[in-house]
């Protein structure tokens, strides 16, 4: 195995490229966020597109799961999402509470089924 990957210049280049690929956009977002009107049509559209993408990802995971999630039956996956929605609503729109409730339901259901 070559030690070229441990070269400080290579490591610095990797960090800079990783920053440019990821964190640069976050920094620009922070810099420009003060100028964004949250009530604008464009911002509403961006919010709706982001919500639709998350909904599509959840639907894909529910209907066409991969890996270990495929061991859980569809009814259990749907019940876990329902528990998550209820947890979210009961905890006054707390995303963390919704995720936790859904995870507990899914993990508990899989454990109870012995899958």
Account of the 3D structure:
It is built from four helices and no strands. The protein has helices at 8-33, 41-63, 74-90, 95-113. Helix 3 runs antiparallel to helix 4. The longest helix is centred in the first third of the chain and has 26 residues, at 8-33. The mean pLDDT is 89.
Question: Can you summarize this structure?
Answer:
The chain is mostly helical and 115 residues long. The chain has helices at residues 8-33, 41-63, 74-90, 95-113.
Mass-distribution shape? extended
User: How much of the sequence is in beta strands?
Assistant: under 5%
Number of strands: 0
Poorly predicted ranges: none
Distance between the termini: 41 Å
- Summed up, the helix count is 4
Q: Tell me about the biggest sheet?
A: none
Structural class: mainly alpha
Question: What letter string, H or E per element, gives the SSE order?
Answer: HHHH
The rounded Rg comes to: 21 Å
Mean pLDDT: 89
Percentage of residues assigned to helices: over 70%
Transmembrane segments: 45-63, 70-89, 95-114
Protein name: Branched-chain amino acid transport
InterPro entries: Brnchd-chn_aa_trnsp_AzlD
Keywords: Membrane, Transmembrane, Transmembrane helix
